[in-house]
Amino acid sequence: MSSTAEPHAGMTLPVPPDARRARLAARGWAAVWAVIGRLPAGAVDPSDARIRWRVVAGVAVLNGVCLVLNAVAQGMGRAGQPQAGALFWTAMLVMVFGSALAASRPGVHRLERLACLVVLGQSLHLLKVIFSPIGFYGFDEYLHYRTLLDIVELQTLFASNSLLPISPLYPGLEIAVAPLIALTGLAPFPAALLGISLTRFVAVMACFLMFERISGSSRLAAIAVLVVMSGTSFVGFHGQFAYETLAFALFLVVIGCVLRLEQEPPSMRWQFALVALLLIPVVTVTHHLTSYLTAATIVGVAVLMLARPMPGQPRALVLLLAVVAVAAPPLWKSAVSAPMSDYLGPHIMHALSDMQSLLLRGSPSRTFFVGTDGVQAPLALRLMGVISVVMIGVGLFFGFFRALTFRLPGEREARKPRRPWPSSASVLLALAGAAFPVTVIFKMTSTGWEVGNRLGAFAMIGAGFVCALSVTHFWGRSLRGRTGRTALAGVLALMIAGGIVNGGALLVRTSYQVSADGQSLEPLGIAVAGWMRQVLGENNRVVADRTNSILASTYGRQNVLSTLNGDPAIADLYFGDRLGAHERNIIAAGFVDYILVDLRLPMSAPKFGHYYEPGDLSQYDNLPPRQRDLAKFERHPEIARVLDAGPVVVYDVRKIRR
User: Fold this and answer.
1) Of 27, 237, 303, 567, which has the fewest Cβ atoms less than 10 A away?
2) Are residues 161 and 147 in contact, defined by beta-carbon separation less than 8 angstroms?
3) pLDDT score for 607
4) Cα–Cα distance between 117 and 206 in angstroms, integer?
5) DSSP letters of 554-583?
6) Do residues 381 and 507 lie in contact, with contact meaning Cβ atoms separated by under 8 Å?
7) pLDDT tens across 289-326, in order?
8) Angle, helix 449-473 to helix 345-361, in steps of 10 degrees
């Protein structure tokens, strides 16, 4: 008889401890992967869906009504009525909700989705036009407006721009708008608005087509575009007349062409590569930072394709594009002698230093939702801003690993050779989306806000794809039916509104505010600038505050002093109740001809940063100049008052300069 008894058929043997732990670990990992990485078959768009133009027409009519209500809200704001803000945001939310609902529903034709997205993109652009219908809204817009006027009026490139010396060295935007002026006979301002509208159209189209080709789903692409619109830059920063606006749209076209090379048949690849090859130099001469990011993105695509052991990859084409993209920025920089290290270097280094301090200290160096003037945004707007960031974070959490393992619906997994990832395009977008939290950290610092805002727009491209993937592949079942579709559109509308709040893009129009860009630009300042050009002549050396300097540079065609142009700092001219030797030396060193004084500045703290030049607010204990400080020019015998326009006065100081 054997010493080891055979187990009875009905007996249950105890599970060894090691096997039990392995089983629990496997179940735990399966549960985690079911939340963050399980990728069921994606929903395929129905082939029998018909385009319903009446839906597109309904969205257009709804947006038109909401834009009219926004115009009414702007008029109420100018009149000082407190209900203006509520009307503005309600109309804007209804407009975005209707477009998002029409574009994100399942079972919709791709052209219907695309048309609704284009209508929404143009409507968001018109919000800014309604806010400032007679002139540009943002400070940066006037810097590039000066370059456009130089090209149109002087018929030359690379003319001096004292307020932004680097702008004439990257004139792609102005070169694109100048022919519109010549061909249509439009004035520069409406021609610039038309150019930005066309740029917005290209950006939405390129973004949608890129996402649709990578995912194989027009619904996923539409949701991704809506998430991209929720970025802090889409409505404001990339809706203004500035060189990054055009460069960003071209970047989307270039990257869309490069990412499609992986999926296109060999006979079609050269066509997309040729488009990218032609546009890379255009991006380079349009905006410096975007050209570097374009090169980095194409190099990333090349690395992923080289590391992916799949036959038939367009490695040679992508390597060619990468070489061109890497070589173009330094070649152009050398050709025009652009001072990139002096312009970008300090901003990036200060931002990195502040981010390091933030991570070590644990507390942000800037106060959220509070302007430089100390005014805090209402609670409802703050909540929308927080919801926007939180929802993007949730989408990244549930979609990141899904993007890494994403493959087109119906595509079978290859056996030999084994692929480390199904799609290089989806991996690249996932990595770009993972950079979104880093941009948020940058925005939590005082000096890193600008860096985070600019990089955030590019990170939002990846974040849009990842968030849309989480909606369609994880939350899809929960968002079925009328209630689910409505909830999704509502969340997307809140995200876009929150992006506007976080970006500080639009406000309800009010009466004049100090150093508030669009809120400070009014007919009086424009008239004074026009008078300077007509009476004093062009290219005089002028000193002015932040707002009047851009008006004098554009409408007045004056040469405004700026430290960016190597001129002496001018804030000391306005603080202090007498003109001493130091102030006279500033006038002499800067060869100042005229000083413009705005007597409204002592009313309050500046809305955006400073009165005259960066740092002047903290230098003078966060106090505005006093009325007697600004009146000292009246008391000096060698200074002549040449214009008295009420709150705006212009003084001739050429005798002191001599």
Assistant:
1) 27
2) yes
3) 81
4) 12
5) HTS--EE--GGGTPPP-GGGTSSSS--HHH
6) no
7) 999 999 999 999 999 988 877 777 888 999 999 999 99
8) 70
Buried b (16+ CB within 10 A) or exposed e, 350-370: bbeebbeebeeeeeeeeeebe
Helix (H) or strand (E) holding 131, with range, is: helix 110-131
Tokens of 603: 């009313």
Cα gap 385→187, rounded to integer Å: 37
Question: Residue 640's pLDDT band (boundaries 50, 70, 90)?
Answer: very high
CB 105 within 8 A of CB 72: no
30-34, 168-172, 272-276 — which is least confidently predicted? Answer: 30-34
The three-class DSSP label of residue 262 is coil
Listed residue (318, 344, 327) closest to 281, CA to CA: 327
For residues 610 and 562, give the distance between their C-alpha atoms in angstroms, rounded to a whole number.
14
Angle between helices 266-284 and 288-307 in degrees, nearest 10: 150
* HSE of 362, CA atoms in CB hemisphere, 13 A: 0
Number of C-beta neighbours around residue 208 at 10 A: 25
Is the Cβ–Cβ distance between 373 and 606 less than 8 Å?
yes
Instruction: Please check whether residue 163 is in contact with residue 560, taking contact to mean a CB–CB distance below 8 angstroms.
Output: yes
**Tokens 């050396």 found at:** 541
**Dist CA 287 CA 244 (whole Å):** 6
Mean pLDDT value of segment 213-230: 93
576 band by pLDDT with thresholds 50, 70 and 90? confident
Question: Number of C-alpha atoms within 13 angstroms, CB side, residue 284?
Answer: 22
Residue 364 structure tokens? 């942000």
pLDDT of residue 409: 59
Q: Is 497 helix (H, G, I), strand (E, B) or coil?
A: helix
Q: Is the pLDDT of residue 417 over 50?
A: no
Distances (CA, A) of 232 to 1, 100, 236, 459, 575: 82, 18, 7, 11, 35
Give exposure, 489-527, as e/b (b: 16+ Cβ within 10 Å).
Answer: bebbbbbbbbbbbbbbbbbbbbebbbbbbbbbbeebbbe
d(CA 257, CA 508): 39
225 near 207, Cβ under 8 Å? yes
Q: Parallel, antiparallel, or unpaired for β 648-652 and 640-644? A: antiparallel
Say if residue 374 is exposed, middle or buried (CB neighbours under 10 Å; 0-12, 13-18, 19+).
exposed
The span from the CA of 337 to the CA of 196, in Å, is 28
Q: How far apart are CA 514 and CA 499, in angstroms?
A: 25
Give the other-Cβ count within 10 Å of 111's Cβ.
14
User: Are the C-beta atoms of residues 205 and 178 closer than 8 Å to each other?
Assistant: no
Task: Sketch out the chain's domains with CATH numbers.
Answer: 517-657 (3.40.50)
Query: In the prediction, which pLDDT does 80 show?
Result: 85
> Please, are residues 495 and 388 in contact by the beta-carbon 8 Å criterion?
yes
- Computed on alpha carbons and rounded to an integer, the radius of gyration of the chain in Å comes to 28
List, in sequence order, every residue forming a beta bridge with 643; answer none if it has no partner.
Answer: 650
Q: Are 162 and 544 in contact (CB under 8 A)?
A: no
How far apart are alpha carbons 483 and 388 in whole angstroms? 21
pLDDT greater than 70 at residue 129:
yes
Half-sphere exposure of 79 (CA within 13 A, CB side): 10
The single-letter DSSP state of residue 594 is E
Q: Which pair of tokens denotes residue 447?
A: 């000096």
Contact 433, 459 (CB under 8 A): yes
Q: Which helix (H) or strand (E) holds 460?
A: helix 449-473
